[in-house]
Design brief:
The complex is a heterodimer of chains A (134) and B (318). In chain A, 42% of the residues lie in helices and 18% in strands. Chain A is an alpha/beta fold and 134 residues long. Chain B has three domains: 1-40; 42-254, Rossmann fold (3-Layer(aba) Sandwich); 267-316, no CATH class. Chain B is globular. Chains A and B meet through helix 1, strand 2 and helix 2 of A and helix 2, strand 3 and strand 4 of B. Strand 2 (35-38) of chain A pairs parallel with strand 3 of chain B.
């Protein structure tokens, strides 16, 4: 009997130590029935991509409040692609100005959640768009 | 599936992690891959690290990886954390202590959730070890969930078991209780700069002095002080790493590895029979509606579990 579960890696790339939001999300995802690999702050895109592959997650959630999202988020997407893991979706959150949104979607981010997004809306998006791999 | 196992045996990280995922999800075709892999297993040295929640297992594992990499060994880690009994979700937070190895190709770290298993491990640990083994990892560290007194399943999978103790958890009667305190090949007293560490050392020592060690290995006790003093911390962990190697050498020299292998294959045969017979049986009882009828009969006190089990056994076991 197969019991597929959504696995999600949560990471904070770059120089940003404000992880309260990421921890709230980790707890929320746990309560939504996902397996959450929480890896915390100060990570390079290389570390995040390597961890996502070793953990065989379905989705990577990135959080960055320092303004470096335009560099860091696409870097993670590209590294996953280069390593043949383009089936791992990448979503992001943080302080992202409206003018940056389209560029990030174009770079391959599947969803972006900015201040004001409810926890339910994030879980609903994942439930609707991510299916655990078989 | 066989392609996946072939790639894993060539060391492909993506294939290995996918295989472990399939083990966790128990996908039906998995047995093809495991049959393929099994003959090639049994090469790696498997080390179990167990102890109470917050005792420092992940932090020790992180520093052990450093020590093992210095000796040119490749390392695989399976780190288990608990699944919620309410939502089925899990927060897997062991990896956060081992981030510095993320980009080292010689290190593979995989987090596992218990998914209802009670012995301190996940059901996927046994086969997960096989995957890391055929991937070519020299040392495989299995970190259990934070355990209490009784979760000792790690002895069925590890050649060398490390029990991590911390000061302040109880008196000497705790030290002579059965269960966790019996399974150590090596004791670590972690956070040994804290009050009570010497007392814990004496209690553990005197517990060991009461015992006799038929296989000729008396478990050493290693005191490890705060991680915040990186130099002494890493020196102590190097000492631990030496003891781990010495223990493995002891198993080899005294021809004791076989006894560890027998424990593991016994467990594996048990688990496989469970999967092939018991789970299938329950599935067919559920599908035929008998399961529900039996539950109803029990609720109405028209029958009892013993009678029902005997009837099922008579019908299905000949």
């Amino acid at each position: 009997m197969s019991s597929g579960k959504i696995r999600i890696l949560l990471a904070k790339p770059g120089l940003d130590g404000h992880d309260r939001g990421a921890k709230v999300l980790a707890r929320t995802f746990r309560d939504a029935g996902y397996e959450v690999i929480y890896t915390g702050c100060h990570q390079t895109p290389e570390m995040i991509a390597a961890a996502a592959i070793q953990e065989d997650v379905d989705v990577v959630g990135l959080s960055c409040l320092s303004g470096a999202h335009n560099y860091l988020y696409p870097a993670v997407v590209n590294l996953l692609r280069e390593q043949g893991a383009d089936d791992i979706e990448v979503i992001g959150g943080g302080i992202i100005p409206d003018k940056d949104m389209q560029g990030l979607y174009d770079a391959g981010l599947k969803a972006l959640f900015t201040p004001g997004a409810t926890l339910d809306s994030i879980v609903d998006w994942i439930n609707a768009n991510i299916t655990p791999r078989k | 599936m066989k392609e996946l196992s072939s790639r894993a045996m060539e060391g492909d990280v993506r294939a290995a992690s996918r295989l472990i995922r399939n083990i966790e999800d128990n996908v039906p075709e998995l047995s093809i891959a495991m049959k393929h892999i099994f003959p090639h297993t049994g090469r790696a040295h498997v080390i179990g690290i167990t102890g109470a929640p917050g005792a420092g297992k992940s932090t020790l594992t992180d520093e052990l990886i450093v020590a093992m990499r210095k000796k040119q060994k490749t390392v695989g880690v399976l780190a288990v954390d608990p699944t919620s009994p309410f939502t089925g979700g899990a927060l897997l937070g062991d990896r956060i202590r081992m981030l510095r190895h993320a980009c080292d190709q010689g290190v593979f770290v995989r987090s596992l959730a218990t998914r209802g298993a009670m012995g301190g491990l996940s059901k996927a640990v046994g086969d997960g070890i096989h995957v890391l083994d055929v991937m070519g990892k020299d040392k495989i560290i299995v970190e259990t969930v934070g355990v209490g007194q009784q979760e000792v399943d790690i002895i069925n999978h590890a050649h060398t078991v490390i029990v991590v103790l911390v000061p302040g958890m109880g008196d000497e009667v705790q030290a002579i209780k059965a269960g966790l305190m019996e399974i150590a090949d090596i004791f670590v007293i972690n956070k040994a700069d804290r009050d009570g560490a010497n007392k814990l050392y004496k209690e553990t020592r005197s517990m060991l002095e009461m015992g006799h060690f038929e296989d000729g290995w008396e478990p050493p006790i290693i005191m490890i002080e705060s991680v915040l003093q990186p130099q002494t911390f890493s020196q102590s962990v190097c000492e631990l790493c030496e003891k781990i190697d010495a223990h493995y050498q002891h198993l080899v020299d005294k021809n004791l590895l076989q006894s560890r292998f027998i424990r593991k294959v016994t467990t594996e045969l048990n688990d496989s029979l469970h999967l092939a017979i018991f789970d299938k049986l329950v599935e067919s009882l559920v599908n035929s509606g008998e399961w529900d009828q039996m539950l109803q009969a029990l609720m109405r006190k028209e029958s009892d579990p013993y009678t029902l089990a005997e009837a099922v056994a008579k019908k299905y076991l000949r």
